[in-house]
Predict the 3D structure of the following.
Amino acid sequence: MVVSVRDVAAAASVSVGTVSNVLNRPAKVSPATVERVMQAIDELGFVRNDAARQLRAGRSRSIALIVLDAGNPFFAEVARGAEDRAAESGMSVLLGNSDERPDREDAYLDLFREQRVNGVLVTPVDGGLDRLTRLRTGGVPVILVDYEDSGHEFASVSVDDVEGGYLAASHLLSTGRRRIAYVGGPGTIRQVADRLEGARRAVAEAPGATLEVIEMPALSVLQGRAAGEAIRSRPEADRPDAVFAANDLLAVGALQAFTLMSDLQVPRDIALIGYDDIDFASATVVPLSSIRQPAHLIGYTAVDLLLKELDEDGGGHERTVRFRPELVVRESTVG
């Protein structure tokens, strides 16, 4: 049997309004009455319906976070950062995985709008921000995560991926490599395109260097392995001498293809660098060089920006935060 507010009021010999005040505005009720109502709540096992209360108030205590791939440890760490900051303000984070699909992103945006979340943190699948604009116009604040729109219409937290791509390719070139392959995902993903742009800038500065682009349908270990198998199957003269993978999952897959399925040696025959510096990068069979992003800080800062936007007196705060990437060198490039 579900215990209602009326049951609590009857047991405590007070009105329903008094029970409501005890739950929401206890300072308006005498200490003796608060104690009597709380005793009735404990004895009856009453649990208030927060969902209904939040709907009446017009907002929940939840924040939505939509990421490209919830299975990617980078986004898992972003989510942890968001949860930590939300918890400090008594809020929770609802996670949605777009799986790099615009239709799934749209479905989650509809769902979270119906849930009346306090705001949406999202890493957009592509450059189309029309849905997010309509969501914001409807009163739902939106913060871009690991993404910055060129018009700066949305508050955002990101990393300079052009610089990250430049760092990765420059490092490979500094080790004497001249035939670099960039293994990326769909070009519609902004981060993939920015990292490629940075790599192109570095290669353009190195006489005799070339850059081959290998586009894969997803940023996953399986796709990285497929790219690696295709590379190792080529004649030695046609193979790149270095690979820059758009994320660490692709790099791990390529490393598997190079070291477990052939006699290629990393980095003697082919150097390899990834991006994100997930925890597993240092634990692979050949520790993986990577470009580090402050994943936890990205999530934490995104929620912080949202809370400032929700604060009516929070005007004037910084709306665009961009972190700098960091090169982490391990045995996969200089072993």
Observations:
- Confidence is low (pLDDT under 50) at residues 54-58.
- The two ends are 67 Å apart (CA to CA).
- The chain is about 45% helix and 15% strand.
